[in-house]
Design brief:
Blueprint (H helix, E strand, L loop, with lengths): L16 E6 L4 H6 L3 H10 L8 E5 L5 E7 L3 H4 L5 H6 L5 E7 L6 H11 L14 E3 L7 H19 L7 H15 L2 E6 L2 H4 L3 H7 L9 E7 L5 E6 L1 E5 L8 H4 L7 H15 L5 E11 L11 E3 L5 E3 L7 H13 L5 E6 L3 H7 L4 E5 L2 H13 L4 E4 L16 E2 L8 H13 L5 E5 L3 E2 L9 E2 L4 H12 L2
Parallel strand pairs: 1-3, 1-4, 4-5, 8-10, 8-13, 9-10, 12-16, 13-17, 14-15
Antiparallel strand pairs: 2-3, 6-7, 7-10, 11-12, 14-17, 18-19
Length: 467
């Protein structure tokens, strides 16, 4: 397992360098209020208050006396999720404390982004994140933000690890390590035992993998009191597409096809670290969709745990198959809330791009809570519909369900409708169709694996579950 970096706030407020956050329009009046030598230095350095600029200002003895961070204007900030994280990347190592200029309502978001800027994936090459550390601004919930950052770092580490070192067994090890840290319990059903315990579609998708990468269902439980929350994460540790083989251009990022499982483990870490009064259950069907003589085939018909039959019209639509058995299993316990996360469809990316996490829910309270909390933790989400009129598209006639409807329309919606057949009816169920990957480096978000939707849900949980 990679060693997840500790993303924490600096503690030495007295020894930290004061940091002034300055909007472009506020620079001139700020300079007028400063000693002449400070104003001269800042102007000579080229600091304008533009977004993510940084400037060290020396004192009489030449040592830094203060730092400035550009905060741009409202239009520029609207295009950047974490503004101060960009300035932090331009500051030298050391501790900094906010002295002025940061709006109170932005303090939590900006402090969280600064924590994220400290992340780096260094398992295979020595590297580090931003070394400038922030003292937690007054009034923010520092422990909570550190718990969120630690969960996010776990998610990023798991996604970033290549499939050679992150197969089903390694994903199980990650779940066991997390459980050991927080006193949770883990049960795992592996290989042929999946058939004996009625998880036929998890077995079918993963049976062609090498024996040491055998399919499994990971079942983590934590907490004995409170409402029951069940998280289900897609754990396809590599997706070749199966016999409907992906082209090389589509296979290149398939190490991230376990992004749903990485997300629910990161979210579980947040929940357990904050000791939320819930009964938490995490279900991860962990498989490799490989090609071999016993791989499942196009037009096979599989019988699911729930008893619904599924015609396989594309072996590359395997994520919904493994999730279906896990969702059916989770629903048997009738949790108060069940959420699935999966890197499920390209259609979702076409609809909203890589930056937004689309989700599906029939529950207006869930939607309202997610929309409200997403803005606070800079975790954008967008509701898509469980559109009833498309139900017929997933009914092939020869079987109860079709795993890959023809036509190419509404692919994310039909996949979500497919999953809902196994989670419901009568259950509070929400599904996230995430991308799990940042295509380029941005402030607070390094290129590579990234969490989506988990922070918004974590912030919404107290209201949704009456905690």
């Amino acid at each position: 397992m990679p060693k997840t970096p500790a993303l924490t706030f600096a503690q030495d407020s007295a020894g930290a360098l004061p940091l002034h956050v300055i909007e472009t329009a506020a620079l001139a009046p700020w300079l007028e209020a400063q000693p002449a030598e400070v104003a001269t230095w800042v102007r000579a350095s080229g600091f304008t208050g533009a977004l993510s600029q940084a400037c060290l200002v020396p004192g009489p003895e030449g040592r830094p006396a203060m730092a400035l961070a550009g905060y741009g204007d409202a239009a520029a900030r609207a295009r950047s999720r974490f503004v101060l994280a960009g300035a932090a990347a331009r500051l030298p190592a050391g501790d900094y404390r906010i002295a002025s200029g940061l709006p109170e309502e932005a303090a939590e978001t900006e402090a969280l982004g600064w924590l994220f800027a400290g992340y780096a994936f260094d398992r295979y090459r020595a590297q580090s994140g931003v070394k400038a550390r922030l003292v937690a601004p007054d009034g923010i919930r520092a422990d909570r933000l550190e718990a969120i950052a630690a969960g996010e770092a776990l998610t990023r580490d798991l996604i970033n690890t290549p499939a050679s070192d992150m197969g089903p067994a390694e994903l199980e090890a990650a779940a066991r390590s997390l459980a050991e840290t927080f006193g949770a319990r883990v049960e795992v059903t592996t290989g042929e035992a999946l058939l004996a315990q009625n998880f036929p579609m998890i077995h079918a998708v993963g049976r062609a993998a090498a024996p040491h990468r055998a399919p499994r269902l990971i079942d983590l439980r934590w907490g004995d009191n409170g409402p029951m929350l069940t998280l289900v994460g897609k754990g396809v540790c590599f997706d070749t597409g199966g016999l409907d083989l992906k082209p090389a251009s589509s296979m290149g990022l398939m190490k991230k096809d376990m992004g749903g499982s990485a997300t629910v483990l990161g979210l579980a870490r947040m929940i357990m670290a904050r000791d939320l009064p819930v009964r938490l259950r995490v279900l991860i069907p962990a498989v490799e969709n490989a090609v071999a003589g016993d791989a499942f085939r196009p037009q096979d018909i599989l019988t699911s745990r729930k008893g619904l039959t599924v015609e396989i019209n594309n072996t590359d639509a395997e994520g919904r198959l493994v999730l279906a058995d896990a969702l059916a299993y989770g629903a048997e316990e009738k949790p108060d809330l069940m959420i699935s996360f999966a890197t499920l469809t390209g259609a979702a990316r076409v609809a909203v791009g890589p930056d937004i996490a689309p989700y599906f829910t029939d529950d207006a309270d869930v939607a309202a809570a997610l929309e409200s909390s997403a803005a606070v933790v800079a975790d954008p989400v967008w509701r898509l519909p469980f559109h009833e009129a498309y139900e017929s598209m997933i009914e092939p006639g020869i079987a109860d369900l079709d795993n890959a409807p023809k036509g190419g329309f509404a692919g994310s919606i039909t996949a979500a409708l497919f999953l809902r057949r196994f989670a419901g009816p009568g259950l509070r169920y929400t599904h996230f169709d995430i991308y799990g990957w940042a295509p380029s480096d941005l402030p607070g978000r390094t290129k590579g694996g990234t969490g989506q939707g988990a922070r918004a849900l974590f912030s919404a949980l107290p209201g949704l579950l009456g905690l």
